[in-house]
Amino acid sequence: MCRPIFASLYDRIMAPLETADLSERRRILLSSVSSPVLEIGAGTGANLSHYGSGIKLVASEPEPAMLAQYRGKSGILPHVLLLFSRAEAIPFPAETFETVVSTLVLCSVCDPEVAMQEIHRVLRRDGRLIFIEHIRGEGRRGRWQDRIEFVWSKLSGGCHPNRQTLALIEKAGFHLEELKPFDPSRGSRRLVRWACQPVLPFVSGQARRV
């Protein structure tokens, strides 16, 4: 799907999952983050309302259509800097941030290993990566995700359903903490549950820079 079209539909596509699970999960994860914060792949601004009012936030996003929607919501938080930037090339010195936030991002970055190296570089020692991501399933589900990866990524804005994101985070020099696997479609309508099957399971948690 053309990325501007995907961007224009994104909030509507995600609305059932936000209502059922994701919005509350974002609130819990982000309510006590430490400044300064870098959010990579900030998208249309789904996280904005969940940060504390005193947070100093840099929100980076590589898609102009997404960034335009984020800009329209950015008045929610007074101390936010919007940045047109890719996660693979973060334009800040080493050890700038206390927290990096990644929610439903690492599935779609072009080079996840480089992105994780950049996140590690700009975080201070013992800084935290806060994340909600979906990961490759095990067994039959994982093999199915491998088979549909090419087509799925074309239809969903570059999302790769079979990335082993937790392994990439550890490889980059992080210690995983507070992992919580979940299904955001649980309790939703049957059509929503069916549409989520290619990207299950999801996981939320933290990773400490070591």
Name some characteristics of this structure:
210 residues; alpha/beta; Rossmann fold; seven-stranded mixed beta sheet; 38% helix; 22% strand; globular
The neighbouring-strand order within the major sheet is: 3-2-1-4-5-7-6
Helical amount:
25-40%
Distance between the termini: 38 Å
Q: Which fold name corresponds to the CATH topology?
A: Rossmann fold
What's the level 1 CATH class?
Answer: Alpha Beta
Rg from alpha-carbon coordinates: 16 Å
Number of beta strands: 7
Mean of pLDDT: 93
**Main beta-sheet annotation:** 7 strands, mixed
The tally of structural domains comes to 1
Structural class assignment? alpha/beta
Unreliable stretches covering 5 or more consecutive residues: none
Name given to the CATH homologous superfamily? Vaccinia Virus protein VP39
Task: Encode the helix/strand succession as letters.
Answer: HEEHEEHEHHEHE
Architecture, according to CATH? 3-Layer(aba) Sandwich
Tell me the β content: 15-25%
The general outline is globular
What's the tally of helices? Answer: 6
Model description:
The chain is α/β, with parallel strands linked by helices. It has a single domain (3-209), classed as Rossmann fold, CATH 3.40.50. The chain is 38% helix and 22% strand. The chain has helices spanning 3-30, 64-73, 112-122, 139-155, 165-171, 190-196, and strands at 37-39, 57-60, 80-83, 97-103, 123-134, 174-182, 202-209. β2, α2 (64-73) and β3 (80-83) form a beta-alpha-beta unit. α1 (3-30) packs across α2. The longest helix is centred in the first third of the chain and has 28 residues, at 3-30. The chain is globular.
